[in-house]
Amino acid sequence: MNFPAQAEGKFRDRRGVCPSFFFVFNHVSSWLTPGVEVIIQPNREAAASLVARIVAHDLRANPHLVLGLATGATMERVYRHLVRMHKEEKLDFSLCSTFNLDEYVGLFPSDPNSYRHYMDHHLFHHVNVDPRNTHLPNGLANDLDAECRNYEALIQRFGGIDLQLLGIGKAGHIGFNEPLSALRSRTRVKALTPTTIKQNAPMFGGEDQMPRRAITMGVGTIIEARRCILLATGDSKAEVVAQAVEGPITSMVTATALQLHARCTVVVDEEAGAKLKEKEYYRWIFENEPEWESYR
Ligand code: F6R
């Protein structure tokens, strides 16, 4: 991890403006925000497109947006839409900053399986984001604990994350917060569960080739983002999505912590939403609430 933007004094330290203002603002805005909302889209393309449109909307409203990013197969479609919007609709990333959720321990950025490589390949190299404002944890740091502390501090120096994109693993993780991650956990090194190793092994050409540990933002770090959007598609996610949204809050399924968030939008396709009990209620909200008018 490096601090070029900080060294040049370019980052936005909103806390420096007036800490008490933001404390009060965040608390007041949490009274007014909707908590968790679920949007069910007909297919994975429509779901990814909706997420990209929310990102584009927030970026246009605030060009200095601090954007939290996720990797994984589900997010690839979202990044394809954002790249298209940059090219065709002049969506401007030049002033925004990004923080990724996680990175494997031990992979070089040039490794095709590193999350730095993923982000360059799917987004950064195709839009006008300033590379110096893109941040991922450094999984090669000599002192990994110090790296985790520095990553947290850097997020704070940028004023916190405005909009955090999330996928969900089959074990219910957000980031690499595997079962039994404390719901107040911060950025740290985490050992991957067998379920996650199995899920991601095909990218590495087999389980033997896969790193066993990753640096991940903690659950506590993630839910401090001002807004979270979780995207899940496909029937393999149906069970875990139902648990995450409608199940009891538990560190065994860390995505359940999002139920504590003041403003979290869960976007699913029909397949991933198939096991939700309150589908009709969620559909009614999306069809009727003015907030979603321009997305229908
Ligand atoms: C990766 C990450 C993970 C993935 C999740 C889903 O940065 O944060 O939580 O979002 O494992 O991965 P896919 O989309 O490949 O099913």
Describe what this molecule looks like in 3D.
The protein is an alpha/beta fold and about 300 residues long. The protein has one domain: Rossmann fold. It contains 11 helices and 10 strands. The strands form 2 sheets. Strands 1-10-9-6-2-3-5 form a 7-stranded parallel β-sheet, with helices on both faces. A 3-stranded antiparallel β-sheet has the order 4-8-7. About 40% of the residues are buried. Bound molecules: fructose -6-phosphate. Fructose -6-phosphate (F6R) binds next to α5.
Helix content: 25-40%
SS summary, helix count: 11
Strand content: 15-25%
| Total domains | 1
H/E topology pattern: HHHEHEHEEHEHEEHEHEHEH
Q: What is the end-to-end distance?
A: 40 Å
The rounded Rg comes to 18 Å
CATH architecture: 3-Layer(aba) Sandwich
**Largest beta sheet: what is the strand line-up?**
1-10-9-6-2-3-5
Form type? globular
Number of E-type strands: 10
Mean pLDDT over the full residue set: 92
The assigned structural class equals alpha/beta
CATH top level is: Alpha Beta
Q: What small-molecule ligands were found?
A: fructose -6-phosphate
CATH topology: Rossmann fold
